[in-house]
Specification:
flat, mainly alpha, 4 helices, 58% helix, Helix Hairpins, 2 domains, hydrolase
């Protein structure tokens, strides 16, 4: 059986449903930024252990890049919800920006350049 793909809107709603069960609700933007920063640091550490030269100590618990990236994603959704930002709209706007700005920024597989347009 194929799992259903969640949309960003569904993920934002699921996170909001989770947060709404607690009296504290959403933390302040600065506290949320600190949490995202902490999670990005943990992701960086895991990437370093997985792909870099620094191996984990035998006493350190195993972890994964995917797990840490998931923590960054969840905390990003939490911050977006707290600030009432629709991540689907933001994604679409940013992809349009990247498509325009970076269309020829990197060498293309098809070999086309800006001058050939």
């Amino acid at each position: 059986m194929q799992e259903e793909q969640q949309t960003l809107a569904a993920m934002q709603q699921e996170v909001d449903d989770y947060i709404q069960q607690f009296k504290a609700g959403y933390f302040s933007p600065l506290a949320l930024m600190a949490r995202i920063t902490e999670e990005v640091g943990e992701l960086a550490r895991e990437v370093n252990h997985t792909y870099g030269e620094k191996q984990k100590k035998a006493t350190e618990a195993p972890n994964s890049v995917a797990e840490e990236l998931g923590d960054v994603l969840i905390n990003t959704i939490i911050m977006a919800n707290a600030l009432e930002i629709d991540l689907t709209s933001v994604f679409e706007q940013n992809m349009t920006k990247f498509q325009r700005r970076d269309h020829y920024r990197f060498e293309r597989i098809d070999g086309r350049t800006k001058d050939e347009e």
